[in-house]
């Protein structure tokens, strides 16, 4: 059978191009053709850079571009500044915005030889769990087009599930890589806070935002991690730490495996039965592989959602203050004085969810309420972090579901923001604590004839992605859930 670049892993595609089993031009053409035929029904990509991608692939084939990702087609999320095409962060505020520079994470991929296919749709400024707040249209889940692909990186997850990229970058502030990965059956890695440079990532909540990956396998996530991780002089919050040489050695045995389980993730029948089953199956996989299962307690997890939505909206209200219509972004046409220009530009440029978050955050930071809300949330954040520190004294990774259920229907939760916010119950604490976490395909929900993917999550110790990925690979190897593709 001829080599199919649109279903192979990143690692094998990279090797196939390097050994000339397939040319970079053929790989790019195969993806671009697939995007042209499938993207219209999904709206995963906002902008496809077809000519640019083909030209870049030709350079790889001519030997002018080399590196560990030479010729591999990758998609980026619309909140990553890119000097080609436009960068809009899913918002009308930045419609048509051309960035003069490229985000460090994207640049590192390009320097490694990757071919950037285009930009994927997302919730406006990464605020959402369903990609329904995107100013460039909703995105459909390839497993069932009447359902959401998760969010905010829903274009990236849909692109991966539909095989429209060999890998995709996402950003995760409260779960925006892991939750969409879980409901589309893809592998989603959020690294430790500070591992990947945020320079050029359009800010949502700076103390939580982190760039990560959507891939077909754990090994592919490891390959990208090895390239993207590392200190960046342009981002003072990147950790001044070396990247472990064995980061991509996911086939090695993880050594000691103590899997932490917390009742906070399984209590009250909160999980859909299929999610509960996937979680229990994962636990059984680890036991069979010789892991020790350790009970841990994360008592402050129950405050995760309120704490997250205070911290995230407070930081968002501050970060989004830069969109005034003056420097960049939408500028209202018929404004009177300066204050009027600000007001009108913001009123016209931002969507409803972004405005809600700006108001919530501004309120939490306002004098008189600051201590009651913002300072309090920071204290709770510390307690959440302390819970994890205690837990990791006795375990190496914590296993839990990624979401409580499979993908919901488009429109099902848009009328009720609080129900929408509850999507992130299992993901926000890793961001609040700054920890690395990965969502793995874990089977299918019995709903809709067993066609909707569900995921399990592993949360690791800070800066120990190498071990986290090896532990994740144990589940992947034993189950093979990641190999099941949707019929399109
Ligand atoms: N759904 C969460 C929110 O709306 C998380 C978003 C994200 O991680 N970017 O804030």
Description:
The protein is of the alpha/beta class. The chain has a single domain (10-260, 393-483), classed as Amidase signature (AS) enzymes (Alpha-Beta Complex), CATH 3.90.1300. 38% of the residues lie in helices and 13% in strands. The chain is built from 16 helices and 11 strands. It has helices at residues 10-18, 24-42, 50-61, 104-111, 154-161, 178-184, 218-228, 273-288, 304-319, 338-349, 352-365, 370-391, 417-421, 428-433, 447-450, 465-479; strands at residues 45-48, 73-77, 115-120, 167-171, 187-190, 211-215, 258-262, 292-296, 397-401, 437-445, 452-460. It has an 11-stranded mixed sheet, with helices on both faces. Strand 2, helix 4 and strand 3 (115-120) form a beta-alpha-beta unit. Helix 9 packs across helix 11 (352-365) and helix 9 (304-319) crosses helix 12 (370-391). The longest helix is centred in the last third of the chain and has 22 residues, at 370-391. It starts with 9 loop residues before the first helix and ends in a 9-residue tail after the last helix. The model has no long low-confidence stretch (mean pLDDT 96). The chain binds glutamine (GLN). Glutamine binds next to loops.
CA-based shape: globular
Major pleated sheet:
11 strands, mixed
The distinct ligands, each listed once, are: glutamine
Radius of gyration: 21 Å
- Name the CATH class: Alpha Beta
Largest sheet, order of strands side by side?
1-3-2-4-6-5-10-11-9-7-8
CATH topology: Amidase signature (AS) enzymes
Number of DSSP E strands: 11
Domain tally: 1
> Which stretches of 5+ consecutive residues score pLDDT under 50?
none
Please give the CATH architecture. Answer: Alpha-Beta Complex
Helix content: 25-40%
Instruction: Indicate the proportion of strand residues.
Output: 5-15%
Mean pLDDT: 96
Report how far the terminal alpha carbons are from each other.
21 Å
List the total number of helices.
16
What pattern of helices and strands is seen along the backbone? HHEHEHEHEHEEHEHEHHHHEHHEHEH
């Amino acid at each position: 059978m001829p080599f199919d670049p649109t279903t192979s892993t990143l690692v094998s595609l990279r090797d196939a191009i390097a050994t000339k089993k397939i040319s970079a031009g053929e790989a790019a053409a195969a993806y671009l053709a697939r995007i042209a035929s499938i993207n219209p029904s999904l709206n995963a990509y906002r902008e496809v850079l077809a000519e640019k991608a083909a030209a870049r692939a030709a350079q790889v084939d001519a030997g002018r571009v080399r590196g560990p990702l030479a010729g591999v087609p990758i998609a980026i999320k619309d909140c990553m500044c890119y000097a080609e095409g436009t960068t809009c962060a899913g918002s009308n505020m930045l419609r048509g915005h051309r960035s003069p520079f490229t985000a460090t994470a994207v640049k590192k991929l390009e320097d490694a030889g990757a071919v950037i296919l285009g930009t994927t749709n997302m919730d406006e400024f990464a605020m959402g769990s369903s990609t329904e707040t995107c100013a460039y249209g909703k995105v459909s889940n390839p497993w069932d087009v009447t359902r959401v692909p998760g969010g905010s990186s829903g274009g990236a997850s849909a692109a991966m599930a539909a095989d429209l990229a060999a890998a995709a970058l996402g950003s995760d502030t409260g779960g925006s890589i892991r939750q969409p990965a879980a409901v589309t059956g893809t592998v989603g890695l959020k690294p430790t806070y500070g591992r990947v440079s945020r320079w050029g990532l359009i800010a949502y909540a700076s103390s939580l935002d982190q760039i990560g990956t959507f891939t077909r396998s754990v090994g592919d996530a490891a390959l990208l991690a090895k390239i993207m991780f590392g200190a960046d002089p342009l981002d003072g919050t990147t950790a001044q730490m070396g990247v472990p040489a064995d980061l991509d050695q996911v086939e090695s045995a993880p050594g000691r495996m103590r899997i932490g389980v917390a009742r906070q993730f399984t209590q009250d029948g909160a999980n859909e039965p299929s999610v509960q089953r996937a979680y229990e199956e994962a636990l059984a996989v680890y036991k069979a592989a010789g892991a020790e299962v350790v009970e841990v307690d994360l008592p402050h997890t129950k405050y995760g959602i309120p704490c997250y939505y205070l911290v995230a909206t407070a930081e968002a209200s501050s970060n989004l203050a830069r969109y005034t219509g003056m420097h960049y972004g939408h500028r209202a046409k018929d404004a009177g004085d300066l204050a009027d220009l600000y007001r009108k530009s913001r009123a016209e440029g931002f969507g409803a969810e972004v405005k809600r978050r700006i108001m919530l955050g501004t309120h939490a930071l306002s004098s008189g309420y600051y201590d009651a809300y913002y300072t309090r949330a920071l204290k709770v954040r510390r307690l959440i972090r302390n819970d994890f520190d205690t837990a990791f004294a006795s375990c190496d990774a914590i296993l839990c579901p990624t979401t409580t259920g499979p993908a919901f229907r488009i429109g099902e939760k848009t009328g009720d923001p609080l129900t929408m916010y509850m999507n992130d119950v299992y993901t926000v604490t890793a961001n609040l604590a700054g920890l690395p976490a990965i969502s793995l395909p874990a089977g299918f929900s019995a709903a809709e004839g067993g066609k909707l993917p569900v995921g399990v999550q592993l949360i690791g110790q800070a800066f120990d992605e190498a071990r986290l990925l090896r532990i994740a690979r144990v589940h992947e190897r034993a189950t093979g859930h990641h190999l099941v593709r949707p019929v399109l």
